[in-house]
Design a protein that fits this description.
Blueprint (H helix, E strand, L loop, with lengths): L1 E6 L4 E6 L4 H9 L7 E7 L3 H12 L3 E6 L4 E6 L7 E2 L1 H6 L7 H8 L1 E5 L12 H9 L3 E5 L2 E5 L7 E3 L5 H11 L5 E5 L5 H12 L3 E3 L5 E5 L8 E3 L4 H14 L1 E6 L7 H9 L3 E4 L3 E6 L8 E2 L11 H8 L5 E5 L9 H7 L3 E5 L2 E5 L8 E3 L3 H13 L3 E5 L1 H7 L3 H7 L3 E6 L1
Parallel strand pairs: 2-15, 3-14, 6-7, 10-11, 18-19, 22-23
Antiparallel strand pairs: 1-23, 1-24, 3-5, 4-5, 7-9, 8-9, 11-13, 12-13, 15-17, 16-17, 19-21, 20-21
The structure holds uridine-diphosphate-2(N-acetylglucosaminyl) butyric acid.
């Protein structure tokens, strides 16, 4: 079993490059199913989730070739040979985002059979919005043996309202709508940069989409789409995590290849907490001077503070002066890291959807278990700040969504190593 051993006490120094965004890459790769032809993606992060989606695409009959580029990966996909319309339980079970093949398969094949994802460590995470949206577009749905089976000769445009903005829900229905007959309007749609990145790719393919980045997205169905070339946008969650790593360990780091505009809420909160951030075009210089101040955080859909940085923020608030309250409004069970942080000496009380954190003088290393992707990053940050070794297991979660996080931190001077026991 692999574990990370993090020894706190070394401050971070140097520069680090942010990888392509996992949550942009996944829907964009799924969008290759919309039409047959050769697609090329650059700045693809080498992550377990990306490999899982490539496996799923191959299982559907698509050709894919992932080759390392100079500092990232180039992925070529030829979707001409699509021969299946089923996403198996085996693959969906490994990664919930596999549900993203549902919309494009319906658009191209008029049928899809996709295993229902089930709950996960951070919440129940239903997909009812995806399914209701497809029904409104005229699809007939059936649930059989844990699979959703959908059929429609051709989807029709529809007016679809989301009770709460859903990232993959918006992405799936946007992909379903691009070749539907007539106009689709998505109201209360997600505004995350990853949704916009997918929308921009679809537009390059010939789709007619308006309102990207706003809560009303309208799509005029077209008959044909073309394959295209795409560069994956930088991962704002990885960038935020590295900013918080400096907050945890101290030091001065230049974060490169980032879009600061995607991180407005995070930058603003970290500044209030006392971190120094010099923002340039595509770089952020992060400096820590002195102790951080406690702040309150509420996770919200974009442009609010992202739930995917809540756990990491909690790790640094454990050492801030005073009391902070972190409220999680997106997922009902995203506090699994609290029990692990307590093992390091953190003082945290959970009341409903809020965690109340009293900053302590110091954390002390211990053995901890990562329960999900962002919880694993939170434990790495806590380890950077703790005295003595923190031994983290459950690394399969970290590797799903962070490209070589341990190597990048080690290059900045962190005392971190991966051992196989
Ligand atoms: N929801 C429903 N019904 C649905 C869909 C969503 O009730 O049909 C609810 C969810 O339970 C949740 C809220 O709507 O309370 C928002 O969930 P959303 O659908 O936006 O989440 P998601 O699309 O499944 C994506 C990211 C997550 C990220 C969330 C929120 C991808 C592949 N995943 O998930 O990323 O936390 O949006 O921003 O884009 C991660 O990277 O660690 C991760 C979990």
């Amino acid at each position: 079993m692999e574990r990370l051993i993090v020894k706190g006490g070394s401050s971070l120094k140097g520069r680090t490059r942010i990888s392509g965004a996992k949550n942009a890459a996944l829907p964009m790769l799924a969008a290759t199913l919309l039409t047959g032809g050769e697609f090329t993606f650059t700045n693809v992060p080498m992550l377990h989730d990306v490999t899982t989606l490539v496996m799923l695409l191959k299982d559907l009959g698509v050709d894919a070739d992932l080759s390392p580029g100079s500092s990232s990966c180039v992925l070529r996909i030829d979707s001409s040979s699509l021969s299946k319309y089923e996403a198996s339980y085996e693959l969906v079970r490994q990664m919930r985002a596999s549900i993203l093949v549902l919309g494009p398969l319906m658009a191209r094949e008029g049928q899809a059979r996709v295993s229902l994802p089930g709950g996960c460590a951070i919440g129940a995470r239903p997909i009812d919005f995806h399914l209701k949206g497809l029904e409104l577009m005229g699809a007939k749905l059936k649930l059989e043996e844990g699979y959703v089976e959908a059929k429609a000769a051709r989807l029709n445009g529809a007016h679809i309202y989301f009770d709460v903005p859903s990232v993959t829900g918006t992405e799936n229905l946007m992909m379903a709508a691009v070749t539907a007959r007539g106009k689709t309007t998505l109201e209360n749609a997600a505004r995350e940069p990853e949704v916009t990145a997918l929308g921009n790719m679809l537009r390059k393919m010939g789709a007619k989409i308006k309102g990207l980045g706003t809560e009303t997205i309208s799509i005029e169905g077209v008959r044909y789409l073309n394959p295209t070339e795409c560069d994956i946008i930088p991962d704002r969650i990885e960038a935020g995590t590295f900013m918080m790593a400096v907050a945890a360990a101290g030091g001065k780091v230049l974060i490169e290849d980032v879009i600061p505009g995607h991180l407005d809420a995070v930058i603003s909160k970290l500044r209030v907490a006392g971190l120094h951030l010099d923002v340039d075009n595509d770089r952020i210089l992060v400096k820590k001077r002195g102790k951080l101040k406690s702040i309150d955080i509420k996770t919200l859909p974009y442009p609010g503070f992202p739930t995917d940085l809540q756990a990491q923020m909690m790790a640094i608030m454990c050492l801030a002066s005073g009391l902070s309250v972190i409220t999680e409004t997106i997922f009902e069970n995203r506090f699994m890291h609290v029990a692990e942080l307590r093992r390091l000496g953190a003082e945290i009380k959970v009341e409903g959807r809020s965690a109340i954190i009293r900053g302590v003088k110091g954390l002390k290393g211990a053995q901890v278990m990562a329960t999900d992707l962002r919880a694993s990053a939170c434990l790495v940050l806590a380890g950077l700040a703790a005295k003595g070794p923190t031994i983290i297991s459950g690394l399969q979660h970290l590797d799903r969504g962070y490209e070589a996080m341990d190597k990048k931190l080690a290059a900045l001077g962190a005392n971190i190593s991966r051992v196989n026991e």
